[in-house]
Amino acid sequence: MMRNLPQLASVVQRNCDISDARHAGDYGLCTFLLKMREYYRWENELPFARALPKEELGDWLKTREQAWDRIEAEQFAPLPLHAGALDPFDAETANRELLPQGCVYSAGYGRMQKPMFFLGKLLRVEERAGFTIRISSCEYARELAAPPAMLQGRTIFVRLESVRRYLWERIEEWQWRKQGGPMAHALAHYDFIADPESALARMADHEMETMILHEVGEAMAGEMLGEAWGEMALSLSRTHHEPVARAVRDLLADCLSTLPGLIERANLPALHFYFATFDAPRRQLFPQALEAYEDYVRCGSFERLRHIVGEGKERWLECARGLLALNPAAREAALASLLPPSAR
């Protein structure tokens, strides 16, 4: 274990806190509270199945928001590495020093251009289809969003601890609503009643593969669309058009890689979970996929879903390229027109 890990983790966590201070308001209230609940669980190392203490959680939330107010204007600090102070966004240089010492670091931008930093324990490194996959276990420093997987160049970072937390958030949200549907089908493959921790670990193994498939799809989509898509996405950042543009790219990635992979492997728990988390923008843009999944549930055949996914490759590639060809005003109008009238 590296000697200055506590110092490095402290700096990375401070940068995470600054990012959260600047961007916590980007979330809707329900999403914010869910993320803060799991952030509290991580910070206090509480088991997933343990009920959170309401009064202590409320006090912690107030204290955290007050701390954010004090540091919001601070600048991100350089990483204290053996080779010297390093730009906190230069993850590749950082990992040349950290990976041999059993640590992994990532940095980049997420939704709404939120800066994201992470430091964790390296579990293993895999090479697959021309991609390097760096999988971490425990997390030494993280920010509120804590994406379970992230693509940077030809490297995919997978955070197993965040995968489990993400799954637990979705499961808790579903339990509060007490609905059936795809999530009920997904959870039926695991014994959350008798042994929730083991069930969550098994589920995380399945869903980690889904996330890797999606990030591979993101890379494939990026090669097809070029750098212009990133420039367009940046211009739409923090507008109501951003979720729609992101959904177009996600659907292209999923039709290229995620869904074909799940169907080919007949990964039924992961397929059910995929459609359990088929969010509003994707449902509104691609209701045919959800209908084809429901057809699979009824008849047990992948034929219709496989056909719809095949069509989706061409549809969403054409849609994305069409958006890139438009001027900004026409592009915004086109993004709005993709949604049904009730959602505009």
Summarize this entry quickly.
With 344 residues, this protein is an alpha+beta fold.
Describe this structure in words.
- The chain is globular and about 55 Å long.
- The mean pLDDT is 92.
- The strands form two sheets. A five-stranded mixed beta sheet has the order 3-4-5-7-6, sandwiched between helices. A two-stranded antiparallel ribbon has the order 1-2.
- It is built from 14 helices and seven strands.
- Strand 4 (115-128) and strand 5 (131-142) form a beta hairpin.
- With 344 residues, it is of the alpha+beta class.
- Helix 5 (160-177) crosses helix 7, helix 7 crosses helix 9 and helix 12 packs antiparallel against helix 13 (303-324).
- The protein folds into two domains: 5-163, no CATH class; 184-343, no CATH class.
Which features would summarize this protein structure in a list?
344 residues; alpha+beta; 7 strands; 2 domains
